[in-house]
Task: inverse folding
């Protein structure tokens, strides 16, 4: 149950489009508090508000930053975490996902953070399990905590995103990060665009209010911020690109672009294919937010774990 007067009613986080403006404000306000505690006070700065809450981290598709930051976030708040390793589980013996998840739930966890290559897995589980489900990435569909942390990191760098021109660049077609960014950025009043090779752009973008560029130079003339996406070779079963070299030549961000656009900010959700999406030196550039995004991810995930636990009446 949501606490009386709470601006955050959600007992699951399945998709970025369930978050209205007041929900985003609530998440960012709580994340501000946690980020300040992370930066200024270290481990003693946190009250263990999630003491007794058990969080299962079920990453059935691989991850570094999302899994690590959910685990750090949960532990900072005093929750207990259980890492479910798909390769070492009975999934590898042919047990179905739903039977595996019923088995996990019979251990009475409170929250399950799930990543899976199949779009819709979090909704499927939320409809069948009692635990709170948090989507940590489902196929090409949604990665809501990445969309949140991208917006939060950018807002911490420049302030309000109202009217800011933000272009997502690269492999839009396979990107759950792009879909979550579009939802959240539009709710925050930003102008959103996409730029990439025709084979990596979905047809539906303009209908979603997303401006489309096919040439990087035109996109960078328009953009205040370039959020550059990873080429997802693991999701390409046909040759959608002539070569990575050709992609880099047409859509990679280099030092030359940073010089030509002296106000441009660059983001990347990671993991970066260095030398493909971003040239050497751009990741560490003073106008790159790549590491600020990772740091923001811990605060955002702390806020979500706490807010969802409150909405579920766990704390
Ligand atoms: N950005 C992101 O989701 O990274 P990981 O795959 O490392 O979690």
Result:
């Amino acid at each position: 149950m949501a606490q009386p007067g709470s601006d955050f009613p959600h007992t699951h986080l399945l998709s970025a489009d369930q978050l209205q403006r007041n929900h985003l404000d609530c998440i960012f306000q709580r994340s501000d508090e946690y980020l300040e505690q992370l930066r200024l006070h270290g481990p003693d700065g946190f009250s263990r508000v999630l003491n007794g809450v058990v969080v299962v981290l079920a990453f059935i598709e691989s991850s570094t930053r999302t899994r690590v930051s959910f685990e750090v976030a949960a532990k900072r708040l005093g929750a207990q975490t259980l890492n479910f390793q798909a390769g070492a589980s009975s999934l590898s013996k042919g047990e179905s996902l739903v039977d595996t998840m019923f088995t996990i739930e019979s251990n009475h966890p409170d929250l399950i953070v799930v990543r899976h290559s199949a779009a819709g897995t979090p909704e499927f589980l939320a409809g069948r399990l009692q635990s709170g489900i948090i989507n940590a990435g489902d196929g090409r569909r949604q990665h809501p905590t990445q969309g949140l942390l991208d917006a939060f990191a950018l807002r911490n760098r420049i302030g309000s995103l109202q009217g800011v021109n933000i272009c997502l660049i690269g492999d839009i077609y396979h990107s759950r990060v792009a879909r979550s960014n579009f939802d959240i950025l539009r709710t925050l009043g930003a102008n959103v665009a996409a730029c990439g090779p025709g084979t990596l752009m979905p047809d539906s973008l303009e209908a979603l209010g997303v401006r489309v560029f096919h040439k990087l130079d035109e996109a960078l003339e328009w953009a205040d911020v370039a959020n550059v996406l990873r080429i997802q070779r693991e999701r390409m079963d046909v040759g959608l690109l002539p070569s990575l070299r050709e992609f880099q030549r047409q859509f990679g961000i280099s030092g030359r672009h940073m010089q030509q656009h002296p106000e441009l900010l660059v983001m990347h959700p990671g993991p970066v294919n260095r030398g493909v999406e971003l040239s050497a030196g751009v990741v560490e550039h003073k106008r790159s937010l790549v590491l600020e995004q990772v740091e923001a991810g811990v605060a955002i995930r702390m806020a979500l774990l706490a807010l969802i636990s409150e909405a579920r009446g766990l704390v």
